[in-house]
TrEMBL record:
Belongs to the WrbA family. InterPro entries: Flavodoxin/NO_synth, Flavoprotein-like_sf, Flavoprotein_WrbA-like, FMN_Rdtase-like_dom. Residues 5-181 form the Flavodoxin-like domain. Keywords: Flavoprotein, FMN. This is NAD(P)H:quinone oxidoreductase, type IV. GO terms for molecular function: FMN binding; NAD(P)H dehydrogenase (quinone) activity. Pfam families: FMN_red. Residues 139-159 are annotated as: Disordered. GO terms for cellular component: membrane.
Amino acid sequence: MTTKVLILYYSRHGSVTALAEKIAIGVHKGHAEALIRCIPPLDQQHECKHPIVTMTELAQCDGLAFGSPVRFGNMVADAKAFWDSTTTLWIKGDLIDKPAGVFTSSGSLHGGNEATLLSMSLPLLHQGMLLTGIPYSEPELHQTQSGGTPYGPSHVSGHHADANLSIEEQRLAISFGKRLAQLSTALKHN
Ligand SMILES: Cc1cc2nc3c(=O)[nH]c(=O)nc-3n(C[C@H](O)[C@H](O)[C@H](O)COP(=O)(O)O)c2cc1C
């Protein structure tokens, strides 16, 4: 059966969406299926580019990439509320021993990009997931002048939240997706 990697994210202005779509390219390169899904928004008026995730999709994924914009140095409230709604799945242990990673976008270079990635990892660890980031064997990790971290892919969108992903940010997101797909397949067949 094909490996399914769930790319679960929230985005208001499109930067996290852009990263999610690059990660999906990497997942395909890693010969897995990418399921791009949105976190249910707290604001019902908020429109999302992809379908809203279901708990069944989350429970049945083989790997997970979780994305959120930086909000005051932390994940967006919608993402925290979503994880707070996963108690049933947590008790069943549906995500235990599945690979996972996190990605984000901030407005400024030192605006909490890495702190947000680390705090986003916490609910995944509580779910029993196996975290992966990006190793320094990826040359763009040494070269980037904006986003892209060992803790996971990231983007710096600028004061007006309109900067395109840099080449380095794109490549790191793609290599992260590929890595997650390969790890998910390896663990699925064990
Ligand atoms: C309420 C709020 C808080 C924010 N806090 C931060 C912050 O702490 N640091 C930062 O660099 N950017 C901050 N930003 C900017 C967003 O993180 C940034 O625009 C991000 O790229 C948005 O991602 P999106 O395009 O996927 O919505 C904040 C934006 C909002 C609306």
